[in-house]
Amino acid sequence: MPQMGESIAEGTLSKWLKKVGDEVKRDEPIFEISTDKVDAEIPAPSAGVLTEILVQEGETVAVQTVVARLSAAGEVAATKPAVGENAATKKESAEDGSTTAPPARVEMTAAAAARAAPGGPPPKTQSTAGTASPPHRTGAPVSDSTRGNGNSFEERVRTRSSPLVRRIAAEHGVNIAALEGSGIAGRVTKKDILGFIESEATADSGVASMHALGGTSDIGHAPLPQPWPGDTVEPMSKMRALISEHMVVSRRTSAHVTSFMEVDLTRVARLRARKRAEFEAATGQKLTYMPFIIGSVVKGIQAFPIMNTSVAGRNVIYRKPINIGVAVALDWGLIVPVIKHAEDLSISGITRALNDLASRARAKKLSPEEVQEGTFTITNPGVFGSLMGTPIINQPQVAIMGIGTIEKRPKVIAGADGEDTIAIRTCAYFSISFDHRVIDGAVADRFLAFVKNTIEEFPESGV
User: Fold this and answer.
1) Do residues 328 and 411 share a domain?
2) By CB distance 3.0 to 4.6 Å, which of 224, 296, 304, 382 could disulfide with 454?
3) Number of structural domains, the chain?
4) Secondary-structure percent of the chain, ordered helix, strand, coil, rounded to 5
5) 287 and 394 share a domain?
6) What does the pLDDT look like over 275-298, one tens digit per residue?
């Protein structure tokens, strides 16, 4: 199971595209997965025959879990299980090292699947800089004697929790080691940590919470709504359920504040109209408003680096690359592919990257690394006619920009002699939702004003 996002610790195997006994070509899609960030097809890391499926459709497993095994055609007979040997027994023996897999067999681990993904170099090792420190109480040092061996306190905690759980624990001062986890081998899950925090808050306040945690109703305290006669009840898709959990966790994690400004895009509209035919002939790409907006946001981040950070407990991590995530609406959910190192790209480069990622997102062709390591997100509900909105921050980032519908409006402007006049201008409302734990309102507003001015004065040489 590949890791499809920085804060994602598990994924759902939504569909097998091959069955046991099928021949598989290298890079041929073999199964589909679903997380709150992406639905994606995962290609085979090598050619062979699918000899064993260990994770069934609809099952949710931790990243790095082996989901299937491939064997070379000549090795199929040697890898068939003995009579009466079920998949669970075989998996258990492989994990404890009691049997040795034939050399030709390939386990579909996260690293292998990610390496085989389209455009996929080996995924980078997750940096511990962006994760929470070991969940001991603030100020309680970890003795050097506990480091450097497989039984260290830090290593034991990390095997019992995901990066997301450790970050939530650090932000709330919770000692994970003291919790009884409900996951496999006592693993502390997100449900466990949120439930503990909620119970502590309830005990402190003396009142029952009216909010369900994690986007699920089974650990909330509000009464569940009941269907009425004639109602239709449909379960959430796995992707929708995961998006729900991710959004609720973000609202609980960050201190959300949203500011709005109206941006005049008339200059960009005229520049786009003049350059469109030439640009499309030279690049083969359609020139939309979004590359101008992304380019202006990059300049704004360079002027206000706090907008490109993450919060790790009491530390602020300033990200060096500017990786812009752009939300793409799909018929079955929402995903956020990431334009990496946008600071190094021209308008044509941004356009090419944006169009490519969006088209492959809709075709479920994104590789794991293409939805990871975003540092700032832009969402564009304006394409559906929305004037403005208050988007929820995409964790572990600290800000997200929303773009309202771009339309012509009558505006009062100053004439050549300083007189007021009414003119038709192309405008849109921009919003910036930011984490007030580390970004003050004045800073967020200056950032948004910088982006506004950059768009309104966009140089013709910039295209």
Assistant:
1) yes
2) 296
3) 3
4) 35, 20, 45
5) yes
6) 999 998 888 888 999 999 999 999
What is the residue type of 2? P
- Scanning 309-388, the segments in alpha helix (DSSP H) are 347-362
Point out the catalytic residue in the list 211, 218, 344, 440: 440
Instruction: Identify the three-state secondary structure at position 344.
Output: helix
Contacts of 341 (CB under 8 A, 6+ apart): 321, 322, 323
Residues spanned by the domain of 420: 257-462
Residues 105, 163, single domain; the answer is no
Q: What CA–CA distances, in Å, run from 191 to 6, 219, 259, 383, 430?
A: 18, 8, 32, 35, 35
Is 107 in the same domain as 169?
no
Give the domain CATH number at 329: 3.30.559.10
Is 436 in the active site? yes
Segment 199-226, tens digit of pLDDT: 665 444 443 333 333 333 344 457 888 9
- Based on the domain organization, do 283 and 408 belong to the same domain? yes
Residue with tokens 């306040």: 205
256 catalytically annotated: no
Residue 354 above 80 pLDDT? Answer: yes
Of 211, 218, 344, 436, which is the active-site residue?
Answer: 436
Amino acid code (one letter) for 42: I
Asked if 113 contacts 123 with a C-beta cutoff of 8 angstroms, the reply is no
Q: Are 327 and 375 within one domain?
A: yes
Q: Are residues 168 and 108 in the same domain?
A: no
For 177-200, what is each residue's pLDDT tens digit? 777 777 766 778 877 888 777 666
How far is the C-alpha of 122 from the C-alpha of 361, rounded, in Å? 20
3-state secondary structure 116-149: HCCCCCCCCCCCHHHCCCCCCCCCCCCCHHHCCC
Name the β-bridge partners of 409.
425
119 torsion bin: left (phi>0), alpha (psi -120 to 50), beta (else): left
